[in-house]
Every structure is written in C-alpha cells, then in structure tokens.
Write a structure and sequence with these properties.
By secondary structure, the chain is of the alpha+beta class. It has 24 helices and 35 strands.
C-alpha cells in the first residue's frame, strides 16, 4: 500500500468529537506530498550512488566487536545490523543503534572502513536517547498529518521526548486532542516504516523545506558544511543528524503526556509554539510498568506535597518564582545550614555579591555571547536621558551565575600563593529567563539559589581540590540518602584553550575518579567549551535520575579576567578555576527530596518534627509549655488541643500529617513533667522526661540521621 493511501486510512474515531479542524481533510497537505516526492527522488539517486560505491570500493574491512572478537566485513555493503544478526538474533532484535569508533551510527547504514563496533540497547542512556529521538519523529509525522503542523524541533530528553511545532498565530493544541494524536502515533509506529538516512546538499535542503521557515532558519544557522542529513520515515522528512531505529515498529508502547506552549528563539522574531511531550518503550509491558511507577511518582509530586503541607506556592504575579511559607522556609534553611556546616569544615569562605551588573561584565566573561537570551536585561532610569558624558548608559542584567562576580572578587587586590586554594561560596539569588512553557514547580524557575562555589587554585593543587569536591559530594548525598553516578565529559568541538592544558586537566580528573572508587562513564566531547567536567547524576528513592551536582574546570575565565597571583618564586602565575555545586539549585533539590521521601521528611529537615497532644483540657497548659520548650530549643513544635476530637483521632491526624513524633500528655505526664512518645509509624516509645526528650531530639537533629524514629 502506498504512503498516500496509508495516510488516507488514518481516520480514527473521536476526531469530530475533539473538534479537530483537520478531521475531514480528504488528503494530506500539498507541501507534504511535494516534499515526500522530492525525498524519494533524492533517495533513489543515493541508493544508486551507494551501489556504485560498493562496486568501486569493494574490499574487506576488519571490525572489532565487544569482547575482543574480530570479524571481517565488506566496505560499503555490510551493515551493523547484519553483524548483530551473526552474533545472535536476540541482539539483532534488541539493538536500537550502533556506535562506530565511539560515534552514533544507524544499524542499516553500511560500514565504510576498519572500525570498533558497539551496539546500543534501550537499557543504556545512549540507547534511550536514540529510541526517544526516533519516537519524536513519529510524533512529528502525526502532528503534520493530523494538524497540518509546521515542525520546529523534536529532541529526546532524560525522561522521554517532546516536539515543538507551529499551528499558526491563533491556533493552540487542546488537551482533549492528545488522545487522538496519540492513537495516530501508535498506528504510525505499528506500520513499521523504515527510518531512511539521506545526505543532501544545502540547495537540496532548502528545496525540501521551502515551506518550513523554521527549518530554513536552522539550515542557515546550523548547517556549516556542504551537506547535512535528513531522515525519512513514512511521509515524514526531517532535518536531523540521527541516528535512528531501523523502523518505527520497534516502538512497542508510546504515550503522549502533556501539551504546553513554548517559544522559538532564533535570530528572527520570537514565535509561539505548541509543545507535546511523550514517553515510549520497546514493549507495551514496559510502558505499563512505567505507568505504574508514574502513578506512584504523581502521589509524591512535590507540588502536591508543597500544597498539602503548606510549604510553598506560586502566583501569577511573579511567574517562575516561588513563595516559601514558614514550614517550607524551615526545610530550605535546614538544607542551606547543612551545606554551610560543610563549608566551615572544608575551608570554604561564604561571600555575598551583587545581583545586578553591567552587561560589560558578561561580555568580558563570554556569557553575553553564549547566554544573552537567557538573561534578564534592563535599562537604568537615567538611560532615558542623555548622560552628561555623552556616552550611552550601560545596560544592566540580573546575574544568572556567580562565577564572574567571584573573579572580580579574586582580582580586586594582589593575591599570593599563600592564599591558595581560595574557596568562595555564594548563596546569592540567580535569575534566568526561562520560557514560560518550560517552568515546572521547583524544578525549573526564573529565580533560584545554588550552593555555588568557586575554587581558585594553583595547577599543582588541582588534583587534591577535585578529590575534595568528590568527597564533598559523597558526604552530602550519603546524608540525603541518594546514590549517584559520575561521568567525565571531555573537550568538545570548538573548545577554547591549548590542547596540552586540556590533556593535563582530563588526566587529572580521570585519575581523581579512578581513585575515588565510584563507577563512572566517559562522555567524549561533552565538556564545556571552557574546560572538562564531571557530571553527577543522583538517584532518588524511586530510582529516577537527577542532574544536580557538578565539578567543572575552567581555563578561560582566569584568562579573560587576567587573574594572577604571585608564586613562590616571585613571578606572577595564573590560577585554575573550579566551578562546583553539590545541591545545585536549592529549590530543585528540595523538590527532589520531597518526592524521594514522599513528604515523610527526616527529622533534621522536617517541618513537622513534634506535635504535643493533651489528653484533656486540664493538660492544655502543660502541653502549651512543652510546645514552648520545643520551640525555644529550635525544634518545630506544634500543639493540637482540639477538644472536639478524641485523643485517638488527634494522634491519627498527626500521623497522617507526617509528624515525626507525637508527645501525648495526660494527668500522669503532667504531674511528673514527662511526655508519652509516639512516632508517625505508631510506634509507642513510652514515657520520657520532657527535658531529656527534647535533648534527644536535638541530638538526632544535629547528627542528621535518616531514621530518628527508630533510634530515639
């Protein structure tokens, strides 16, 4: 059956009920058919070219397989998929892509020369990225065919994929339309259309996407070589570096999750886009298992917990910023105090720096060129008048990071080698101009704080400082109850600085990781342009990964700010800069902790440490005194003296509210100045002296134990 006929058969029940304006369209848009026709012409020409190449360059090549096995193949003929079939049918069925000499590669793309070959499966991060990127192409195809959408971008993410597309100035996608769009995605996946890789010239690219102004802009800005790749799948043709699955039928389970708005930001004017996100798996059973985990995660959603426990809220009059209520502020401050205590123990000095800077600072640091669109800039009031000097007033910008300010702090007076390493920590408020569609609770904000620190050190101190940063990470995550995984990201294309310095820095980071003793991966080419880095992914109680901490080396800012210190020999020397964070965004970490513990906070973080419950009204005065003693000691102590409820009802209410402890006081406890202690799990710990009980709580709080209720 032809692709045109396949499209005509996509008439699913419920289209008219959703009010889709395309439900009655008898044929695909003209530009879609025209684009597919051109793709087929170019594809046929490429097939003939490859046949000719295979005949002219017919030769045997050597392939190194996992496990050290070496096999022979035929250049421009043998594909990774064929080699996978030779190894085992299971590998051929489960592989989603290949790696050739460390680079991602399509399974159906012929090998060209001797190489090292690896196979990617869905259970690896790289395999998931390929799988979900292929899934977003299926979503793009459905959006084109059902909605007449103009596609913009469709990447994979850490937890699935999304696609941004344009429906016109006045058209938005409604939530009620998602089920229909999802069913079309599922039918397109079931059709098992192959993903076909085509190399096209810039002129051919412009002809293929002449009806898509977004793709034309990407071609102009991103395609720097004579050719680029596009992929065809069914009626979809999209600009993409790949690789992709062999065919869409490998997607066994697919679900669309949310729709929202986003912004197209490029050299042209901003455009409002529609964003649809989704998730997919090789089998329907894996999707079903994920939905079960998702239901559990929704119960633990930090936004729900924040509302129920009155920790924080958001308001439309300050979009992208959080209002922390007293209980939430207590959790926030406990986290910050924890890091401050570690700073003191580890030789960090806390500083405060301004929030508002001239954009000249960001031009000097290089952030204005790379980060301008994500910064809040404003003109000072006197910029509306002609300045007395005749020069235009500076544009000001809210700081999105602290490193340039810390460089100014280092440079404000002469420095000596005796001061190094200089470790500066800053909890200052940061502001980033996140798109409204990307905001989500505490995990993505426009205003937030980080446990941000920068270490200025001599080159020979670098290894010891990196080891110290890794130990800092492990200590903090152990207290928070997180496991973690590390990755070394090395120099990217277009890196700045001398290769010799990069080699030395990467060797130092690798040596530190090997000595650290925790598992780590290598991410070639994924470092920052200014230096290599160690990325840290922590895993919460549900096994979900979160990118929070980081350790980054920076050779460029010391150069840009001309940072120097007088060395032991009296000559001026250049320091090395280490960017590091453990919590990352404090707000984001609070969200991760809330979901990981499901609102059952450990005592040292808890906004619900103790509630005092009098048995009768006669004990209310003593109960209030006990509450005041708790509060005077710095503990979160509440009182439940609601005489309209029975004692058992009030105890149950306290346990449902996740109070770590309940202090029940009756006539006997009042006369002996004791309390009867219970936990939120309804463990009865018996009668304790009030003063001793408060002292024990303080001891457990100060040691930050995760199980205070068990060891009280």
């Amino acid at each position: 059956m032809g692709l045109y006929q396949r499209w005509r058969r996509l008439r699913l029940p419920g289209l008219q009920a959703c009010g889709l304006h395309t439900a009655a369209v008898p044929s695909p848009p003209h530009w879609l058919v025209e684009r597919l026709g051109l793709f087929e012409e170019l594809w046929a020409a490429q097939v003939e070219k490859l046949k000719s190449m295979a005949q002219k360059e017919h030769r045997t090549i050597k392939i190194q397989l996992p496990g050290g096995q070496r096999v022979e193949a035929v250049a421009w003929n043998t594909t990774p998929y064929q080699l996978a079939q030779q190894i085992s049918s299971t590998l051929a069925d489960t592989a989603v892509a290949a790696q050739v000499n460390g680079e991602p590669y399509d399974l159906e793309r012929p090998l060209e020369t001797d190489c090292d070959l690896r196979f990617l499966k869905f259970d690896s991060p790289e395999g998931k990225a390929v799988f979900w990127h292929s899934s977003t192409h299926v979503l793009g195809a459905a959006a084109e065919q059902l909605l007449g959408a103009i596609l913009c971008r469709g990447p994979s993410t850490e937890c699935g994929f999304y696609h941004d597309f344009f429906l016109g100035k006045d058209r938005t996608l409604r939530g009620s339309e998602l089920p229909v769009l999802e069913r079309i995605c599922q039918e397109l996946a079931a059709a098992a259309q192959p993903f076909r890789r085509l190399e096209a010239s810039q002129d051919q690219l412009r002809q293929l996407f002449k009806d898509n102004p977004f793709k034309l802009r990407l071609i102009e800005e991103k395609v720097t070589g004579p050719t680029a790749t596009v992929y065809g799948c069914g009626m979809l043709v999209d600009l993409c570096p790949g690789p992709h699955l062999r065919h869409s039928g490998q997607i066994g389970g697919l679900k669309l999750l949310t729709n929202s708005s986003s912004l197209w930001r490029s050299s042209g004017a901003e455009e409002s886009l529609q964003r649809v996100s989704g998730i997919s798996f090789p089998t329907a059973e894996e999707l079903q298992a994920w939905e079960g985990r998702r239901a559990e995660a929704e119960l633990r959603d930090h936004r729900r917990i924040g509302k129920e426990q009155e920790l924080f809220f958001f308001h439309e009059l300050s979009p992208g910023s959080c209002f922390f209520l007293p209980r939430g502020t207590r959790v926030y401050n406990a986290l910050v105090s924890f890091i401050r205590a570690e700073y003191t123990r580890r030789g960090f000095s806390e500083v405060k720096t301004p929030t508002l800077f001239s954009t000249k600072l960001w031009e000097l640091s290089g952030h204005w060129q790379h980060y301008q669109e994500d910064m809040f800039a404003l003109q000072p009031p006197d910029s509306r008048r002609d300045p007395p000097t005749g020069h235009p007033a500076d544009t000001l910008a809210l700081k999105p990071m602290n490193c340039p300010a810390h460089c100014l702090m280092f440079a404000h007076r002469p420095r000596s080698w005796r001061e190094l390493p200089l470790r500066l920590a800053d909890f200052g408020a940061l502001h980033r101009a996140e798109a409204s569609g990307s905001l989500g609770g505490l995990t993505r904000l426009r205003c937030f704080q980080q446990d941000d620190a920068h270490i200025f050190c001599a080159p020979d101190q670098l290894e010891a400082e990196v080891r110290g940063c890794l130990d800092f990470l492990r200590s903090v995550y152990a207290v928070l109850g997180f496991s973690f995984h590390l990755a070394l990201s090395t120099r990217p294309p277009g890196f700045l600085g001398e290769p010799r310095l990069w080699d030395q820095a990467e060797q130092i980071l690798q040596q530190a990781l090997e000595e650290f003793g925790e598992p780590w991966d290598l991410n070639p080419g994924d470092g920052a342009f200014y230096g290599p880095k160690i990325d840290v992914r922590l895993h919460d109680a549900l096994g979900r990964p979160h990118q929070c901490g980081t350790i980054q080396l920076d050779f460029q800012l010391p150069l840009r700010f001309d940072l120097q210190y007088k060395g032991q020999a009296g000559a001026l020397e250049r320091p090395v800069l280490i960017h590091r964070a453990v919590l990352g965004s404090v707000e984001r970490m609070l969200a991760v902790l809330a979901e990981s513990c499901g609102g059952k906070w450990p005592l040292w973080l808890s906004p619900f440490q103790v509630v005092v419950i009098p048995v009768g009204t006669e004990q209310e005065e003593y109960a209030r005194e006990a509450q005041q003693i708790l509060q005077a000691a710095g503990l979160a102590g509440d009182l439940d003296a609601d005489s309209t409820l029975t004692l058992s009802r009030r105890v149950r209410r306290a346990q449902l509210a996740n109070y770590n402890f309940q202090f029940v006081v009756g006539p006997k406890e009042q006369s002996k100045r004791t309390v009867n202690v219970r936990t939120r799990e309804n463990r009865r710990l018996g009668e304790r002296d009030l003063t001793e009980a408060v002292g024990r709580l303080l001891e457990l709080q100060d040691t930050r134990v995760p199980n205070a209720e068990e060891i009280f």
